[in-house]
Amino acid sequence: MPSTPRPWIDHCTQAHRRLLNVVKNLTDGHARRPSLLPDWTVGHLLTHLARNADANSGMVEAAQRGDVAAMYPGGQAQREADIAAGCARPARELVDDLTSATERLESAWNSTSEEVWATGLGRTFGGLRAIAFTVFMRWREVEIHLADLGLHELGSPDWDGLSPAYVDVEWAEQSATLARRLPEGTSVILIPGDRPSRVFGAGERPIQIRATPGRILQYLLGRGGAQPGWPPLTQWS
User: Fold this and answer.
1) Nearest 5 degrees, angle CA 50-CA 52-CA 57?
2) Where are the domains of the chain?
3) pLDDT tens for residues 43-96?
4) Predicted structure pTM score
5) Superfamily in which the 6-157 domain is placed by CATH
């Protein structure tokens, strides 16, 4: 089996196209509008997505040289400063920047050898990550922030509009860690309706979490959407 994460690259590339299609008619008014993330405008979110693409490019290019680079060499302070510096730009500059950064990242992925995909590493805020896995991390970033944009009149989706391929992979990722994120003595039964229900946790009386897969992922990823009685979760990673 090859080490190149080709399915993730292909799906993330499709998500990039979906994102760029949403913002192709962005106006300055849209850019100044609050996103669905607290304290962030649409301009903040698009600047973040561009700088996140550059951060991923940097890790991949370092791995190609045999190095291990930090996603944000200046840490959280650099990440926040870059977003603050770019968020108020005109809509056309925001879209052009995002387009160029996305193209650079896809070019870096396409020039990466099988050996680098197999052994390359990058350093994220969560620690060392295989370069191959950072492709999924970028895909996640784009899918989630498409929903966070809140630009429904331009075609941005809600949580039920996430791509089915992403939902399948993220469902497996979040299911793997859910039990340890629950309050002590709690268990939940996830009832998404489109796949088998499963119980997570150690409590004797599981709490029912019945919703669409996208809405359950919204809850698991800490983006709101919890219904009365759903237990609080610790931070996901």
Assistant:
1) 95
2) 6-157, 177-220
3) 999 999 999 999 999 999 999 999 999 999 999 999 999 999 999 999 999 999
4) 0.95
5) dinb family like domain (1.20.120.450)
